[in-house]
Write a structure and sequence with these properties.
Structural class of chain A: alpha/beta
Keywords (chains A, B): DNA-binding, Repressor, Transcription, Transcription regulation
Biased composition (Polar residues) (chains A, B): 1-12
CATH architecture of the largest domain in chain A: 3-Layer(aba) Sandwich
Radius of gyration of chain A: 27 Å
Order of helices and strands of chain A: HHHHEHEHEHEEEHEHEHHEHEEHEE
Strand order of the largest sheet of chain A: 8-7-9-10-11-13
Number of strands of chain A: 13
Protein name (chains A, B): LacI family transcriptional regulator
Low-confidence stretches of chain A: 1-14
Distance between the termini of chain A: 78 Å
GO molecular function (chains A, B): DNA-binding transcription factor activity; transcription cis-regulatory region binding
Mean pLDDT of chain A: 90
Domain HTH lacI-type (chains A, B): 25-79
Oligomer: homodimer
Chain lengths: 350, 350
DNA sequence: CCCACTTTGTCAACCGGTTGCCAAATATTG
DNA sequence: CAATATTTGGCAACCGGTTGACAAAGTGGG
């Protein structure tokens, strides 16, 4: 009662006999129909070249006729392989991950792998649970900005190939957005606009990426002779940005770079609510160029991360590790890029 | 070389013998250690009450000691069950799905199911591929605002439990946000503000939900004696909203309700760019209350959908269908709610 | 034409669980 | 205490593929 013709062709009237009570055909059904041994069917289907073209064709025809689909569990049982890669993002709600997901997904499809997605809602515990669960059913795992400890990540990586995005963990391959390129342009732009003192609203204390971004900013500011200081924050979210507003106002910097766009948006809105004009009274810049960063008034200037490329590169690296377990080539850092919009401008009165 | 102590306790010095060359313990290892038959182990682990408390305890201890984890494939092979539910969203990039995902995910965790997420990037083809792939490894499937045809959905539903979110497909259970409640308040609000003519910028032509929203708006407008007309659109995205701007300007309506927030944002930004003042020159309202809908200036007034509840309800319904294959209770429609912000206001000169 | 070598297909064991059936052990009852 | 009812555990078959070992068939060279 279940046989729906999936091709849209005229429905074949009768599907050749299946074993009674069985809902889906197996290689045994194909073997019988094609007059060969089941193992030959298995080889024809998964070991190209192992059987003669003639029998292979017979088997393909039979498979087609029965509308055969491999049972992934049966295949996974002896091989352990599922053609699936897991991706865990720390927060599905953070638009920064959109493109990471898209990038990984399309890289996966291109190689006939399926992407399995999970999120940890910013909780290290949930993340560990999700990672463990996934690891059981997946050939490899990508962790995007994980909240896990280095040890936990290493322990996962000991079991199956793991690639980390935007974080550096000893012994675990990672793909990283190189802040320098974008920061260099951004700081030069601010310098051109007459700024001589800027603040960096940092991300989470334990965030490796936040530290890197600050390093990069500090280095460029020194080069330009600009004063730079860090403002600590609570969370890398819109709310976190809002809460940093008081500290920012108390300071004397004329430009602020935030750890990410979410914070920049929160900061901007809070300051605007308090009567400041952006960018006249203060220039604000974010990181990542997320969805919605141009919704604000003024639209946000930001340092764009190669999010899609990061996702794709991570996936490709997992696949490479799967192919030749030895090779672990260092990955090129992917460059960031300045996106100038309306939230940065000339220092007042200059 | 792989045995990482996962508990954080002092590492046990020696893990009891495993069969040579095996990486992870099986029920056979447990059986040996506990001095019982493998089938007893299987029962102790998955059929509570089937074995005596005493042996169950012995087995649990042995399992703990070996750090046992079931092999999901081996379990799935005979049973066909994976404790996994799939969720396919039409566009991971659409913030409206955030809460749907979160809602479904937490409902799944609560029942010890894992959620498997995929997206179709707004393509019916990709969606079908993703759905087919998922169906093979998943106990049930949730389709959020699917792009598939009714027939395709029905054909998927013929194989495993499927629940559709925000769409009505004959014979397939669905959970739906009831526009009426929110629309009723919204139209009353607009009437109070002096509006006598409003436009509805529609979603995709084939969108069931868009039609329902329009019906609801039309009915309420009639009730209030307000003129209402539909403006067709291209896509339910920010860009789609932008492209509707010209048509909207050409009309005489003083308030516009858009199919979703994304469109409302696009429309608003485009009109602002053209010099209109919102809400003075025109009131704009969206649907859903997505992330970012309060980033705009003015922040968007919108009719909030119970997105999280939708996701959770869908998941629970799939689980219910799995439990008692017969029961298919009709699901209560979940109410929407008006969220008033700055993009709607009094008609100019009134 | 024979022999060595390669290709192709078969057999059977295995992956790690689940489950129907049965017998042994234990509990209940008159 | 015997007879019956109920638990409890073991045996073995099964889920649907994969794969090493081997034999049959095919190929080519001398």
């Amino acid at each position: 009662m279940t046989d729906i013709d999936q091709t849209g062709n005229t429905p074949r009237s009768a599907v050749p006999t299946l074993r009674a009570g069985k809902s889906s055909p197996t290689i045994y059904d194909i073997a019988e129909l094609a007059g060969v041994n089941p193992s030959t069917v298995s080889r024809a289907l998964s070991k190209p070249g192992r059987v003669s073209a003639k029998t292979a064709q017979k088997i393909m025809d039979a498979a087609e006729q029965l509308n055969y689909q491999v049972n992934v569990f049966a295949r996974a049982l002896p091989t352990g392989r599922t053609q699936t890669i897991g991706l865990i993002v720390s927060d599905i709600t953070n638009p920064a991950f959109f493109d990471v997901i898209r990038g990984a997904e399309s890289a996966a499809s291109a190689r006939d792998y399926t992407l399995m997605l999970a999120e940890s809602a910013e909780s290290a515990d949930l993340e560990l649970t999700a990672a463990r669960r996934m690891l059981a059913t997946v050939d490899g795992l990508i962790l995007a900005s994980p909240r896990l400890s280095d040890e936990e990540i290493a322990s996962l990586a000991a079991k199956k190939p793991v690639v980390v995005i935007n974080r550096n963990v000893d012994g675990v391959p990672s793909v990283i957005a190189d802040a320098d390129a974008g920061v260099s342009d951004a700081v030069r732009h601010l310098a051109d606009m007459g700024h001589t003192e800027i603040s960096y609203v940092a991300g989470p204390e334990r965030s490796w990426m936040s530290a890197r971004r600050w390093e990069s900013i500090k280095a460029r500011c020194d080069w330009h002779g600009i004063m730079a200081a860090v403002v600590a924050s609570s969370q890398p979210t819109v709310d976190g940005g809002r809460r940093a507003a008081a500290t920012v106002r108390a300071g004397t910097a004329t430009a602020v770079i935030c750890y990410n766009d979410l914070m920049a948006i929160g900061l901007m809105r809070e300051l605007q609510a308090a009567g400041l004009e952006i960018p006249n009274d203060l220039s604000i810049m974010g990181f990542d160029n997320i969805f919605g960063s141009d919704f604000t008034t003024p639209p946000l200037s930001t340092i764009k991360s190669p999010l899609g490329e990061l996702g794709a590169a991570a996936l490709q690296h997992v696949l490479a590790a799967l192919d030749h377990a030895d090779a672990a080539p260092t990955l090129p850092a992917l460059p960031t890029e300045l996106v100038l919009r309306g939230s940065t401008g000339r220092v007042k009165g200059s």
